[in-house]
Amino acid sequence: MEERRISTDDVLNALQDIRLPADASGGVAADLLAAFGLGLLLAWCLTFLLSLVAGRPTSLVEEGHTKAAEPGSDAGSDEDRTVILLHQLRRVAPGEAKQLARDIYAPAGMPDAETVRAALHRAEKADA
């Protein structure tokens, strides 16, 4: 059998166009929607990968809470600092925060900021 060489031009001419014909259902609109969908998928993938690399950013609210909760801070009242510290304690040690939250409704009322700060330090030392 005689082998016939196929030229590159013959192969390229024989390839089918991968796009739908213009008179097919959807036509240009289908092509645009497919491109838009692929773009959204790519954007979602990039967002996911960047969130893995970048980590969790600290919000301005958390930074403000941290500064306001410092002992020498003049930001807010003592009650505000206590509430901020209770929120931080709830993140670090939920069990201890629940106990202090129950004490809020006792006749003595809200614990002072130093009590909550001490509980927060104990919880952080236990984690370390």
Task: Please provide a brief summary of the model.
By secondary structure, the protein is an all-alpha fold.
Descriptive account of the structure:
It is a single chain. This protein has 128 residues and is mainly alpha-helical. The chain has 2 domains: 8-54, no CATH class; 60-127, no CATH class. 66% of the residues lie in helices and 0% in strands. The protein is built from 6 helices and no strands. The chain is rod-shaped. It starts with 7 loop residues before the first helix and ends with a helix. 10% of the residues are buried. The mean pLDDT is 77.
Q: How many structural domains in the coordinates? A: 2
Look at the helices and sheets and give the structural class.
mainly alpha
Q: Cα distance, first to last residue?
A: 80 Å
Poorly predicted parts: none
- Specify the overall morphology: rod-shaped
E-strand count: 0
Oligomer: single chain
Chain-averaged pLDDT: 77
Number of helices: 6
Note the main sheet.
Answer: none
| Beta-strand percent range | under 5%
Question: Which properties best describe this structure?
Answer:
single chain, 128 residues, mainly alpha, 66% helix, rod-shaped
List the helices and strands and how they pair.
Elements: H1 8-14, H2 27-54, H3 60-68, H4 78-92, H5 94-104, H6 113-127
